[in-house]
Amino acid sequence: MHVSIINRINETHTERDAWRAHESHTHARAHGASHVVYPANTHFINPRQNPPSNPLIFLIFFANTMSGYLGALSELSGKATVGEYGVTIVKLQDSPAQCTLACFLTQLEPDLFETYHVPYQNVLWCEERAAGEIELAYAVDLGENVSLHTEVLSVGAYAHETHPDVAQQVLALAYKQSQPAPRVLVVLNNHGGQGNARKLYHTDILPVLRAAHVEYTYIETGYSRHATEIARELELDEYDIVACCSGDGVPHEIINGFFQRPDRARAFDQIALTQLPCGSGNALSLSSHGTSNAGRATLRMLKLARSRMDAMAVHQNGTTTLLFLSQAFGAIADADIGTEHLRWMGAVRFDLGVAHRLLAKTTYPCDLYVQYAMKDKSEIQGHYDKHRVTLSDTRPVQEEDLEPRFEDTSLPGWEQLPLYITDDLNIFYVGKMPYVLGDAQFFPAALPDDGCMDLVVTTAKTSFFKMAKLLFSVDRGGHVHSPDVLHAKIKAYKLVPRVRLDHHYLLVDGESFPVQPLQVEVLSKVLTVLLDDGFFVDTCFTQLEDGSVCVRESV
């Protein structure tokens, strides 16, 4: 039996999923560590094999055997192995002191030890407690949320013979793309969405920040445009990240606060903007973190790389506003803003609003002028594939990057969309990120810094049933491949609505704008955000290594 037990301990030190039992007459060895040392009086003897016949002698014999055995088990519990992909932890499932006589008078093949692997992407913090001992804080992804754990673990001779500072090595591997313990300004809006931001912060976000030893400052907005004031007056040298605990409104305000600064180029270059989803619209988190869960997004925030992203500048009535998300005119804008009185219905109000306008064959006539980058669907796929393997430049943001370039639509390069499209237009939607709402890939070809916006246009000439089919395919991004959809990459556009102003809306980064002419253009690579290797999350345009196309699960 003692050989079987030792081998069960030995197998737990094999990293990843190679933890199958094997019978081998070897000494217990920790992966990458020295031999496990047992007390001199330890006896791994099966009491069921030739026990002493005298009851008193048997009890003495058994007590000595169990004492040595429990001591050996205790020594083997709470061990850690630092490997290429993460930290492997071995622990007793129950305290040895809780074992009864039955534990040792029955076959000990049931799992006495719990072995689990913590990928570096889930490690939040590691520090040395004593010689050969570390304290490890990590998260376990539960799908809908994360749970946090802290363990004090022995790394034995490993920490002294091959890696003198094992805690620093673990941190370096855990934060390959980022820096540990960043300085984060948390800007929270508790008035958006369902009003749960403050609760989500304390239950899901703050515990992760503390476990990761983040240096954080908390500010709660008190009124409209408060976040703009915060960003405009921010001491840039005190922070690395501004984390918006909100929907999409606070990121919009932060960007425009930076834009109003005299040192705006430095602000955009120095401070990374991210979103910890706490509102009804969480596009930045969905597209960069791949989740609308606040706890998971906080973990992802700490692991992602500082990356460049394009902004969009909208010019209307002599005023310039910076955008990061989208602009809509037609059924989508009306269904969003026009159903505010039905907010109590939740997300279904938007679906009902769109369906009503499509059934009614509502049209939104306009004049539309565009600076195309590309409009052939196969060309867009090729552009996407090429960009996914081309790293972005990281030069500092310059003041000239924030200046408009396409103000005059009479210059060469502008095209007016045919009137047979714009007279019957029912959806006009432009975006910079793939995910706008929930699991909907409305702009699956969107890229962070390709200098383009993605344009989607449909008309009321398409039958209701075809439109319904298109909208049902948005969750997988299939709508952009339809011949009934105009899908293009554009550098700039000018929209001139020809509708009654009191019945329709312009939706700009989730906010209502006057239904008046506006012009939008890309400001290339002026935002600093947090992305995985510089890319948005996968969409239906993502080609996998085996040549297949990614189909993203719902989040």
From TrEMBL:
SUPFAM superfamilies per the UniProt record, alphabetical: NAD kinase/diacylglycerol kinase-like (SSF111331)
GO molecular function: ATP binding; lipid kinase activity
Keywords per UniProt: ATP-binding, Kinase, Nucleotide-binding, Transferase
Keyword flag Zinc-finger: no
Stored InterPro entries: ATP-NAD_kinase_N (IPR017438), Diacylglycerol_kinase_cat_dom (IPR001206), Lipid_Phosphate_FormReg (IPR050187), NAD/diacylglycerol_kinase_sf (IPR016064), YegS/DAGK_C (IPR045540)
Ion transport in keyword set: no
Gene3D superfamilies for the chain: 2.60.200.40, Probable inorganic polyphosphate/atp-NAD kinase, domain 1
A GO cellular component entry from the record: cytoplasm
Pfam families per record: DAGK_cat, YegS_C
Alphabetical list of PROSITE patterns matching this protein: DAGK (PS50146)
Ranges where the DAGKc domain occurs: 179-318
Gene Ontology annotations of biological process type: sphingosine biosynthetic process
UniProt protein name: Sphingosine kinase
Organism this protein belongs to: Metschnikowia aff. pulcherrima
